[in-house]
Amino acid sequence: MISRPPPSPPPDLLFDAAALDDGQLVTLAHGDTRALVAPHVGGSIAAFYEAAGEAPSFHWLRPATRAAIDARDPLGMASFPLMPYCNRIRDGRFRFEGEMIDLPSGSGALRHALHGHAWRRPWTVEAQTADTLTLHFLHEPHDTQGSRGSGPRTGTGWPFRYEARQHLTLDARGLTVRLWARNLATWPMPFGLGHHPYYPRTAGTRIAARVRAMWEIDAEVLPVSLNAHPAVDALQDGLVVDDFDLDNNFSGWRREALIEWPHEGQRLALHASAPLDFFVLFSPRGLPYFCAEPVSNTTDWLNLRHAETVRRIDVGGTVLAPGETLEAQLAWLPERS
C-alpha cells in the first residue's frame, strides 16, 4: 500500500536531551555512545545514541519522551522486552496441554492479550558496570498452588512461574541484549520472547531484510494466512518505510536487517540469534517512527499452532520443561562512515 511520506519529525521530538536527564535511568557509556535503561519501566531501553563532541546527537532508536518516563509507559520508550509471548493472543485465550488459559484482557481490540506482561512490570538491577547491565525479572502466578487439571483459569493471568534476565552490553560495535528465561513451574510452559524497538522515521528511511513470507492479517491485526506479498520482495532490495502501511509478521527471517537513514547518512544493522526467527514490521502511515521487531513467535502462535494448515516452523514459540532455559541475543550495530 503506497502512502505519502510523513513529514520529518522536528528535532525536539527525536533529540530531547532534557527528557533523558532522569536519575532513575541507568546510563551505559562506551566512548561517545550511550545507552539509557529504565529498569522501573518494564526493563525498557530509554535511548541509544551517539554524541561526538559538540555535534548533534544521533539517536539509533526513538528516545523516550518526558511524558513516557513520568507515566512509566513502555510504549513511549525506545525498546522493551517481550515475554512470555510476543504480540497478540486472540481473545486472550489459548489451550495448552488440555487446559484453557484465560488471560486478563479488556474489551474491543484490547480483548486480545498483548506482548505478555514483563514489559508492564519493573525489573531489578542485578549487576552493573560502566558499560554492562543485568536486569532480573521474576513472575509469580496468581495461582500460588500451581495445580493442574482444575479447569479454565479465567482472567488469572500467566499461570506458569518463571524468571528472566536481560544482559545489556555497550561496546565499540554497538548495543547487545542477551535475553534469558527459565521455567520455574513444575510442569511444561509455553514461551516466546523478543524485543520491541522503535526507530526514528524520516523521509527516505528504508529497511532491508531477507524473509520468506508475510502473514496477512484480519481487521484486528491477527494473522490469518501466510502468503507471498510485495513487501517480501521489497525488503530484500531495501523497503522504503513510507511506501508500505504494515503491521505484519514475517516468517523465515534470516535474523539480519539493515536500517538506513540516507538523508542523515546513517546505517544501523540489526543482528539476532535463534530462536528469534520471526520479524514484525510496524509502519503505519503518518507516524514519525516505525518498529522492526526480532521475535521468537508469530502473533497468536499459541492458537495458530493447532491449525492443521499451519506448520510449526511458521509460528515459532517453544515449550520449556521444568527447569529448562531459553536464551537469545540481539544486537544493534551502527555502521559508522
TrEMBL record:
UniProt-listed GO biological process terms: carbohydrate metabolic process
Q: Its Gene Ontology molecular function terms?
A: carbohydrate binding; isomerase activity
| Alphabetical list of Gene3D superfamilies matching this protein | 2.70.98.10
* CDD domains listed in its UniProt record: Aldose_epim_Ec_YphB
**UniProt-recorded name of the protein:** Aldose 1-epimerase
Q: Which organism is it from?
A: Paraburkholderia lycopersici
